[in-house]
Amino acid sequence: MSYGRTTMINKQILFGSPATSMWALLWLAAFAINVNSSERKEFQFKHHNNEEMYDAILQVRDKCPNITSLYRLSEDSVEGHPLLVLVFSVHPTEHKPMDPEFKYIANMHGNEVLGRELLLKLADYFCEEYKAGNEDIVKLITKTRIHLMPSMNPDGWQRSTDDGGSDDLIGRYNAEGVDLNRNFPDLDRIVFDNEGYYKDINNHLMQMVDHLSQPVQPETKAVMQMIMSIPFVASANLHGGDLVANYPYDASRYGNEQGEYATSPDDDTFKWLALSYANYHADMANPNRMPCRGGDTNFGKEGGITNGAKWYSIRGG
């Protein structure tokens, strides 16, 4: 296991304004996968290789064609693997006003595999439970549109797998050696710079992004285009590592590497959403659990949540 930010949710965990009741229901669904339901399903909760991952996505699409659609992002990975997103909704191919859009992305770091398996299982669970008439899932699929992207970095996954997991950094980056969780435009810095001078222009920032520390990778570009084309109200990014729900801002205002709480305008909302997630988890908010490694922060004593910059600051997440 690599020691990234979180086992369940990482940078960009919650992004945008919430449709709160649907968000809470979506959190609940993510943890409602239980042994009894999985026993009557064909899905195998296992480590899927890239081809098996694509097959699992297609199988869910074929089992529930009326509530799913599948799309391929505008760019493939560096090594040509398609970046696929499975959508759940009673109107899976189109956005409808007032029906909130949600996004889950996993496997941004190729050697962090738990999230990709959880999203594959969640997709199968949504399909089976909708067909079984589960009232919560039927309500969720009827009133929202949910996008599941099990792998943002299939190239990194392949490299880490070929290596056999002997090094916890191999496969973390994409095939060009770039950390995709540092490759997005640093919108936090633009916000911070504008706060003292241009208080009225912090809502439309993309036109102000004119340079990056590294070239935008195809995987990053594809996700950026998805984000800009679909009005997501909230998102979660699943990583491997510590057990904590991390919420914005991720970058510090004053350059401190850690320990500096970076408050966003939606801080109270983000904190509430993170807590609603952590409290549904069996262990995340447990104050008596031990940290993942000696010397690590015991996030259980903090409710299982953290502000990103307070934990440690990153730019381009």
Set down the secondary structure blueprint.
Blueprint: H1 20-30, H2 35-39, H3 50-63, E1 68-72, E2 84-88, E3 101-106, H4 114-132, H5 135-143, E4 145-149, H6 154-163, H7 187-195, H8 218-229, E5 232-238, E6 245-247, H9 267-280, E7 305-307, H10 308-311
Parallel strand pairs: 3-4, 3-5, 6-7
Antiparallel strand pairs: 1-2, 2-4
Helix content: 25-40%
| CATH C-level name of the domain at 42-178 and 217-241 | Alpha Beta
The low-pLDDT segments are: 6-20, 33-40
- CATH second-level architecture of the domain at 42-178 and 217-241: 3-Layer(aba) Sandwich
Secondary-structure element order, N to C: HHHEEEHHEHHHEEHEH
Describe the strand arrangement of the main beta sheet, using strand numbers. Answer: 1-2-4-3-5
* CATH fold-level label of the domain at 42-178 and 217-241: Aminopeptidase
The CA-CA distance between the termini, in Å, is 20 Å
Sheet with the most strands? 5 strands, mixed
Quaternary status of these chains?
single chain
Say how many strands there are: 7
pLDDT averaged residue by residue: 85
* The CATH homologous superfamily of the domain at 42-178 and 217-241: Zn peptidases
What is the overall number of helices?
10
Strand content: 5-15%
Q: How would the global form be characterised?
A: globular
Structural class: alpha/beta
Alpha carbon gyration radius: 19 Å
